[in-house]
Amino acid sequence: MRRALAVSAVAGAAWVTRRALRRRIGRSPLWPLPALEHPVSGHSPRRALRALIVSRTEPAQGVLQLTLESPDLPAWTPGAHVDVTLPSGLVRQYSLCGDPADAGRYTIAIRLVEDGRGGSREAHAQLVEGAELELRPPRNRFELVPAASYVFVAGGIGITPILPMLRAATAAGADWTLLYGGRTLDSMPFLDDLAPYGDRVSVLPEDETGLPDLAPVAAAGPGTPVYCCGPEPLMAAVTVAAADPAAVRLERFAPAAEPGPGRAFTVELRRSGRVVEVAADESALTAVRRELPDTPYSCEQGFCGTCQHRVLAGGVDHRDELLTDQEREDSMLLCVSRAEGDRLVLDL
Question: How many other C-beta atoms lie within 10 A of the C-beta of residue 54?
């Protein structure tokens, strides 16, 4: 009888301990480090979604188009993109190019880049019809602002965020033109979708017409937004050609030109009680991972948000292409952003 009571007491104590640990971990995602009032580091600020690949097609040479379906997919607006988690765990960003009115369905297109970092090769090889895909809710730093007229410029796969903008501008009765360039006609996706727009669209394959004539960009009137997505040289040329460079809105999924030389700074990891030195020629992510090797990351280019962490003190030199102005008030992407001064304090 005594033995049975002792076993019962030990089991009860173990159950209470496990329950307390679960609650403790819930309060601090990096337990057993000290908990702060609102810990966010180590968790994506956006929930993961699951969607089924219901269609896989090739709208152009080297381009994969996927249609995803799920009743849980949030609404989105033209210009939005989603973060897609590939089977290997890599996170990549793809513009939504379907119709925002088509609830529960997303369409993305992926250009195969043989000499890239591997994401597009993995997508082309492994994302098949019937497979489930993990993604994060859409975000939009390329919003279509209301206007009476627009000039759109797309290069290659850069047509993807522009497509839903054309539909929205047409529905709103706006006047617009599109310059659409690419290496060859066979490599340019969605030509069938553009055909109904007639002479509003100029299709400019480089092997036939050379580099696109940006005269419509230079001729855009005051207050006319110019939207451009494509290779970096094209976006630079559009910015230079525009009569009003402030009217140019760009969407890029590769880093812009490298910023000037960095400077060394110190990072205090508040919850772990450690201090790390970030050299001028390394990222904050690299330095932090020397002390906390499990710190998550993926793209290392300031696009996916995996390494977003809360900043408790210090100014940040933001160099990402992802965070909203509100998010930049109290967080940073460790892979590209740096301290404005000599010291930062992070919730890590």
Answer: 13
